[in-house]
Amino acid sequence: MRPESLRQSPQPPIREPLSLDERALAESYALRRDEERLSMEDSYFAKVKSSERLAADRSEVKRLEAKFVHDDESLLASAFEYVLQQRLNGPSHWLGERVKAQLTTPFDDYRNGIDLYVEDVEQRGGRPIGLSIDITFSTDPQNIGGKIRDLKEKLLTGGRLAQLSYYKPLNPEAAPEPRDMLALPKVVIGVERERAIEAMGRLREAEHEGTEEKQRDWVTGLTVLYQISKQLKAYLWYSETQVDRAAKPHVEETIACYKEALKDIEGIFQTMKLDHAKVREFARQSTVTNVLEAQLAQEIGYQRPTE
Length: 307
Prior knowledge:
Layout (H helix, E strand, L loop, with lengths): L19 H17 L14 H15 L6 H18 L9 E5 L2 H5 L5 E5 L8 E8 L5 H13 L7 E3 L17 E3 L1 E7 H17 L8 H24 L9 H21 L4 H8 L3 H14 L7
Parallel strand pairs: 3-6
Antiparallel strand pairs: 1-2, 2-3, 4-5
Helix pairs in contact: 1-3, 1-6, 3-6, 5-10, 7-8, 7-9, 7-10
């Protein structure tokens, strides 16, 4: 979630304010989100970043936070980031037991537009995927369309991947040496406002009533999985067919990275014994998923396959 001044399209006005109960829950989860974020003060980063660099990044965070718009929408987005991390990390395991999620530092959130990264903790060296979360109204395509356009203009047309400034592997035992920057695929996750509110309530029920098995909210989980898979295919297609490889030879590394990420996603389908057609059916119950597919076609020319 980025400060309003950095968004491509302004958020539409909220039609109804959050109820007192919804606001209290959102505030609670937003605070937990802040506690779960990767810290720039972690000694891990001192191995690869100078004290001057760390100080400069802290100053940049303060500058961007000063521009931040505090409203119901930003509060709900922060809360849903926490819900998503919890559902990915289990016991729901929306992307399988091998895949874990980490909320990023404020610097990567505000500056690089990456709210979380996920990776297969059994994959040696890690192959994380960056997630950008967008809470949007089901009838308004501007937010997701703007993020896809931003991704195209800043990354895809140049044959580049997103840059994660602060990356700490989720499986340190299988990790390489610390890196100053990490290039990784980035996708946008779109969720209707109503579904985000429902997801918060279901997580609260699971926490307080021990109803995890009944409250796993698989529809939202499958929607997230489908949106990731769909975008990786679209961005791979664009990188392979729309970027001049002779002029931008580095795109070959980008293509290889997208292919590896898709291999990991396909592994999730196989491990969880998921049927592609059924996942697609579940995901398209979400109006935002259909908006996302339409925006992929409009912004980068990727048409919905007929499979």
